[in-house]
Amino acid sequence: DAGVIQSPRHEVTEMGQEVTLRCKPISGHNSLFWYRQTMMRGLELLIYFNNNVPIDDSGMPEDRFSAKMPNASFSTLKIQPSEPRDSAVYFCASSFNRGQGRNEQFFGPGTRLTVL
Amino acid sequence: LAKTTQPISMDSYEGQEVNITCSHNNIATNDYITWYQQFPSQGPRFIIQGYKTKVTNEVASLFIPADRKSSTLSLPRVSLSDTAVYYCLVGDMNTGFQKLVFGTGTRLLVSP
Fold it and tell me: What pLDDT does A110 receive?
């Protein structure tokens, strides 16, 4: 398996523009997570999907952020409009949720977003 | 979610054993202890997980005392490639939703 795939790997945009980050989870995994990492705030969970349904979006910073998972093999994180403070590395992770016990999360390589 | 406290940084030399201790005084009965490793410009990677006593895999060992208020990640004979940030996390593994709350982690620097 190729692991979690994220695109683009790097994104540079101007303030006010719409940004869409994409993620393909590992085949067979039923849980998907979006994280954001900055020097100031560390690694933060933004949203969690289970079986394509958003379960916990309490970490989404504000209405400018939205995430979708139309099917088991694809998810997007959209920022509209983008602001310089959104600059960060965004990670997507997936896991197989067994209901209990070890649920190891597999992280993608991340998307480095720079908003000018 | 139980809060964890771990050293901000540690230094070691190649070939030495490294022990990173994490404090989690408010750990709940259903909480498991999990460690992740993160290299620069990469996403975190699962290392090891345990509930009590000792767990060992091909990468590391995890020691958990009876009161479970702390845990120690042990890396035997580290190499330069073990330079990374190590995160200790605790969370309920019985709900089916493992919400990972990453702290600041421990930045390990291994020198020749």
Answer: 97
Instruction: Give every CB contact of residue A37 below 8 A, 6+ residues apart in sequence.
Output: A43, A44, A88, A89, A90, A91, A110
Minimum CA–CA partner of B98 in chain A: A103
Q: Give residue for tokens 């504000």.
A: A62
pLDDT of residue A97: 74
- Angle (nearest 5°) at CA A50 between A48 and A55: 50
Please give the Cα distance from B92 to B95 (Å, whole number). Answer: 6
Put simply, whether A93 touches B (Cβ < 8 Å) is yes
Q: Which of A39-53, B47-61, B82-96 has the lowest mean pLDDT?
A: B82-96
Q: Which residue matches tokens 């949720």?
A: A97
Q: Which residue in A20, A21, A48, A41 sits closest to A105, CA to CA? A: A48
